[in-house]
Amino acid sequence: MQHTRRPLIAALVVAGAALGNTTQVNAQQGGASIEEVVVTARKRAENLQEVPIAINALNAQDLERAGINRPSDYMGLIPNVTIVDAANVGDTQVSIRGIVSTRDAESTFAYVVDGVLSTNPNSFNEELFDVEQIEVLKGPQGALYGRNAVTGAILVTTKQPTNEFEARVGGTVGNVGTYRANAMISGPIIEDRLLGRLAVSTSETDGFYENIFTGQDDVVDFLEDTSVRGRLIFNASPDLTFDMRAGYSEVSAGAINFNAAFAIPAFVDAFGAPNYFQDPNDLDFRFIFNTPGENEQETTEFAIKADWTLGFADLVASFSYNDLQEYLLSDGTAATFYGYELTPSCQSDRAELNSFTRPDLFGEPFNPFGVLPPGNDFEGVYGPYTALSCDGFQYQERNQTDMSLDVRLVSAQDQPMRWIAGLYTADIEREVVVSYGADRGQGFVRAPYVPASGISPTDLLFWDDFKTRVYSGYGQLEFDLSDRMEVSLALRYDREEREVENRVPNVLNSGLNVNLVDENFAPLPINPAFGNNPDGIPDRDRTFTQFQPKVTWSWAATEAVNVYASYGIGFRSGGFNSVGTEDLLNFWFNAGFGGPGEAVNAGITVTDDYDKEVSEAWELGLKSEWLDRRLRLNAAVFRTDVEDNQFFEFFAGPFGLLRSVTTIDEMYIQGLEADFTFVAGDGLTLYGGIGLMDSEIEKNVNRPLSVGNDVPQAPDMTGNLGAEWVLPLADGLDLVSRLDWKYTGEMWFHTLQGEQTPTIWNAFFGPGFNQDFSKSSRDAFSTLDLRVGLESLNWTLTAWGRNITDEEYLQEIIPAPEFGGTFNHPSALRSYGVDFSYRF
């Protein structure tokens, strides 16, 4: 595929040249042309069409007219870019050209706000307000944009304060209890010297789904977000400027809104119930949890950037500080394996809430779930996240504090040889807690560890402090081979020193979970790693290093056509799973460790650490404008080969649940993408894009049967098509309409895609109860958004609808092979409302 697609660029150049020559006269008779887009992808202000990088850019007007409030709103407008937003706020997985920002690992793209790299994992999914421009860069960008820019960079530029006073207020009212209010004030504090801007946003929605057990419609996918951001620009002298930015946000939202589906064909034959081998895309979602799904976040951030003109170059230095405090609380999964079957709270719940008394909760008995009343212990099929205390609860924390410093010299832009040289360092401290415990029906203590005497005692605990120190040097050299040809050489070297300290107390669990006791029913250690480390779990450390070169060639074939080619190396640091991961999974799923795994014999290899990820990327691209700049057409073909791609694995079993990161040894993704903008007439603009990908897993020691399968979260096709029509109604008053259609093709979420492998059920019922994920890809889907509004010089009023066809599709499928099923999260349904803004 790599060799057959690359000639397509040459064909596009020839065809485009012919198009330009034959339509020039008509074009000169047409109306407006496409405006020039200025981007900062190479740390300088440049015309997007002249930068040899695949870039999609949205300016402030685009963001407002498209109704962009969060990153998921614009991802569908960019070919070969997808996003999964599930589990909790900030737990986004962004896939750029098929390489995904793995849950619980480092990101795969650099997220840069006003020129400062953010290392806070949740900062990307914040509310987007008072934003001037967003640029999405594809391909390795580590040389200029820092650590983990394996597959690209997303640059956000907020609006700067100016010498002129301005203010703005706005709001939204919509269905499902949605409202949003925001305000901004900006202007000089000391004219020409100190300029300030302050923006505030608050939003709330009840969400689309209801807890049918409690009858509440605002406890499932609800979201409340309040954010304050300020920016100061201090012109200390004509040559020295300081740019300071600070922000604070509080988020409260639902969490872990998943339903489970079995994928075990043998259960269908054994029980005569077809839903034991179910297509998640046809799932009838029932949210019936008794534990409140909570996600609370508090984020504080500060950044300062200094820009000093030295004559021969600019010295740019930036410092950033971020602090995130976050916890999640939700129902658990232990009821499926009768972990808390004999607790008084479980017995009491089953007396009132079972398949005979509440079919509205549990559905058709034993197809696939069934809850029996007391006296029938260890016989039901409960499912996770239920109205029963039998499933226990899970509690998680993701707390991070980080500081970074970047210093670089940037040469003048008008030189035949242009260069950048810089140093970067960061210090990151991250606390990760995943605990599982008993629901006694008395409430919950929101803490990592609760003793056996507590109201919600902890029975399984992973609790680690991670420290990372980053040291990097980077540079780029651009020089002209001729008036029309340029070569760029870039290099980055990263050294990441990582260490982890275990904080799990060396205690026994409560003994309430019958799956976490020994043969004498005595409680086991609260973390399985204590079995091999009775005196305490040792600290761990590893260092990861990598050179990341990139070479780019660009050629201005004509005034309207630019062609470029690039080759680059991407790097993502390795890391650690929580201590105890390997011991726990070996005991339950692998033979040779004396536990139930003897009967399961899954043969998986998940360790307490994982290797660095390294990728090689090739790209050939075209940027062009035709019809007197009324048509813009950009395209690229690419191939990326990846070693040790970091992949998220989810495990559920009698112990509860476990999150981990594994690696796919070798894989590739190759594809084509193109986008266009066409000014069809006065006021009417058409635009769209298409992305095609082909991918394959070439080696996977952890899951050998997956070799030859598609790469997870690399859909074969994405696309969008839209139209914007601006109709003048009166002097200073326009009717603005915008229609956006977005398409995402079929997507797999796991390396196993139909190959049968053992499950924990083989330990209970004998061999043959294997999983089959052949039905567990997410179906292709498309959505349609419509906005119609009035725009004047000072105010706008817009009626809008998102997903107006009410398409029902899945946000995420999390397969758990050794459990024998999937955990599935639905997407937003149809929403509609009215936006209003007024500028002073």
TrEMBL record:
Keywords of the record: Cell outer membrane, Ion transport, Iron, Iron transport, Membrane, Receptor, Signal, TonB box, Transmembrane, Transmembrane beta strand, Transport
Domain of life the protein comes from: Bacteria
Similarity remark: Belongs to the TonB-dependent receptor family.
PROSITE patterns: TONB_DEPENDENT_REC_3
Amino-acid biosynthesis listed as a keyword: no
PANTHER family: FERRICHROME IRON RECEPTOR-RELATED, TONB-DEPENDENT OUTER MEMBRANE RECEPTOR
Signal peptide: 1-27
Protein localization: Cell outer membrane
The TonB-dependent receptor plug domain, residue ranges: 48-153
Ranges for domain TonB-dependent receptor-like beta-barrel: 269-804
GO CC, any one term: cell outer membrane
Pfam families: Plug, TonB_dep_Rec_b-barrel
GO biological process, one term: iron ion transport
Protein name: Iron complex outermembrane receptor protein
Main location: membrane
The keyword Signal belongs to this UniProt entry's keyword annotation: yes
Membrane topology of the entry: Multi-pass membrane protein
